[in-house]
Amino acid sequence: MTEVYCYAKCSTCKKALKWLDDNGITYKAIDIKADHPDEETLRRLHQKSGLPLKRFFNTSGQLYRELELSKKLPDMREDEMFRLLASDGMLVKRPLLVTEDAVLPGFKEEDWRKAL
């Protein structure tokens, strides 16, 4: 089952869910703020994605800016990054697409089309 971690007020999430609906793709929407992935899940998703861990951070989010993570992340150990991401769903890049074979943070129609 395809899962999409998203935030209801996020315009990119709305666009991604509409794209899934328009393309007849069945999915389970998960509220990333209320039901964010825990550290173990994030580790599994990161490994499955093959992407740098930094790609999982919502770099345009208010919390990211408040915590000044652009300055801190380069010196942060991976374990610290995972703990931080697991602490608040608003730090995780969204929407986060999870399929049987792929994990994609953010919405790029071309990438999602390939993954689905």
Task: Give an overview in words.
By secondary structure, this protein is α+β, with helices and mostly antiparallel strands. It is 42% helix and 14% strand. The model has no long low-confidence stretch (mean pLDDT 97).
Give a brief rundown of this model.
It contains six helices and four strands. The chain has 116 residues and is an alpha+beta fold.
Tell me the number of strands.
Answer: 4
Overall average residue pLDDT: 97
Q: Work out the strand percent.
A: 5-15%
Structural class: alpha+beta
Span from first to last CA?
11 Å
Order of helices and strands: EHEHHHHEEH
Helix content: 40-55%
Query: Judging from the principal axes of the Cα atoms, what is the shape?
Result: globular
Flag low-confidence runs. none
| Widest sheet: strand ordering | 2-1-3-4
Please report the number of helical segments: 6
Give the radius of gyration: 14 Å
Largest sheet: 4 strands, mixed
Question: Which key terms come to mind for this protein?
Answer:
116 residues, 6 helices, alpha+beta, globular
Helices and strands in order, then pairings?
Blueprint: E1 2-6, H1 11-22, E2 27-31, H2 39-49, H3 62-66, H4 69-72, H5 78-87, E3 96-98, E4 103-105, H6 109-115
Parallel strand pairs: 1-2
Antiparallel strand pairs: 1-3, 3-4
